[in-house]
């Protein structure tokens, strides 16, 4: 038994907090009344809890008779259910500002996922399929060099997080677009790295495709609507001041 999953969760939360702190200096969600860190922390805890329960049930482990296995484990977390639970928590806690909150948390969510994947260093679970590339690693007691696939995912997600943060700060994207982009990036990164994992499962891959397609479709629609709105505004002639009749 070990607590390495808690270390991975801690890495994810620290990365999420760091991104929120960094973005706050750049005016991230400055007009939002909600505390983004409170929402992020709650969503992460709920997501991990639900995802862990789903993974236990999927493995045939009864959470009621094995409650310690929720945190003292050698297994993992069901990605899809964890993500759904976290997004639902954000939507509920965000209230009428749910899209502002979701956009404000978009880069931090990707950073948190990057931290979560980097937690593989404590779990000894970074390696994937065999490879002869110069940067591959070997597991203790083995001569086979393998892709550090979890670290690939961590790096790609971190790049996506900073790129999204820069877009939010400079590009003034439409409401909901950063959240849609974060969903698409997360799904895309997992799809790119999944073939390099030791076990390719059809279940998680379907979740990743859903995230990529839904996020991309929503992003395209939102950007298209903004373009049409901007074009309509530019084509509207300015209002002429009223002329008063002479005495």
What key phrases describe this protein's structure?
globular, 64% helix, mainly alpha, 247 residues, 2 strands, two-stranded antiparallel ribbon
The largest sheet has its strands arranged as 1-2
Helix tally?
Answer: 8
How much is the average pLDDT?
86
The assigned structural class equals: mainly alpha
The residue ranges in which pLDDT falls below 50 over 5 or more consecutive positions are none
**Number of separate strands:** 2
Summarize the biggest pleated sheet: 2 strands, antiparallel
The helical percent reads 55-70%
Instruction: Work out the radius of gyration.
Output: 22 Å
Strand content: under 5%
> What is the 3D form?
globular
Cα end-to-end separation: 94 Å
Give the SSE order as H and E letters: HHHHHEEHHH
What is the gist of this entry?
With 247 residues, this protein is an all-alpha fold. It has helices spanning 4-24, 36-58, 79-94, 98-118, 120-123, 149-170, 177-193, 202-235; strands at 137-138, 145-146. It has 8 helices and 2 strands.
Structure, explained:
The chain is mainly alpha-helical. 64% of the residues lie in helices and 2% in strands. The protein is built from eight helices and two strands, in the order αααααββααα. It has helices at 4-24, 36-58, 79-94, 98-118, 120-123, 149-170, 177-193, 202-235; strands at residues 137-138, 145-146. A two-stranded antiparallel ribbon has the order 1-2. A hairpin with a 6-residue loop joins strand 1 and strand 2 (145-146). Helix 2 runs antiparallel to helix 3 and helix 6 (149-170) runs antiparallel to helix 7. 37% of the residues are buried.
């Amino acid at each position: 038994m070990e607590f390495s999953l808690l270390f991975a969760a801690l890495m994810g939360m620290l990365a999420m907090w760091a991104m929120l702190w960094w973005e706050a200096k750049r005016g991230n969600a400055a007009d939002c009344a909600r505390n983004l860190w409170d929402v992020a922390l709650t969503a992460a805890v709920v997501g991990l809890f639900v995802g862990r329960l789903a993974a236990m049930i999927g493995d045939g482990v009864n959470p009621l008779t094995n409650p310690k296995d929720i945190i003292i484990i050698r297994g993992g977390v069901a990605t899809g259910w964890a993500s759904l639970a976290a997004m639902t928590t954000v939507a509920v806690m965000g209230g009428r500002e749910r899209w502002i909150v979701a956009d404000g948390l978009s880069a931090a969510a990707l950073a948190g996922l990057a931290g979560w994947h980097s937690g593989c260093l404590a779990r000894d679970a970074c390696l994937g399929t065999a490879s002869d590339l110069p940067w591959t690693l070997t597991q203790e007691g083995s001569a086979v060099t393998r892709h550090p696939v979890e670290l690939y995912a961590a790096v790609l997600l971190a790049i996506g997080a900073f790129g999204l943060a820069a877009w939010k700060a400079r590009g003034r994207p439409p409401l909901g677009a950063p959240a849609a982009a974060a969903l698409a990036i997360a799904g895309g990164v997992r799809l790119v790295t999944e073939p390099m994992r030791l076990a390719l499962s059809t279940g998680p891959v379907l979740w990743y495709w859903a995230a990529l397609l839904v996020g991309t479709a929503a992003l395209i629609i939102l950007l298209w609507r903004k373009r049409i709105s901007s074009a309509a505004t530019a084509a509207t002639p300015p209002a002429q001041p009223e002329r008063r009749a002479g005495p």
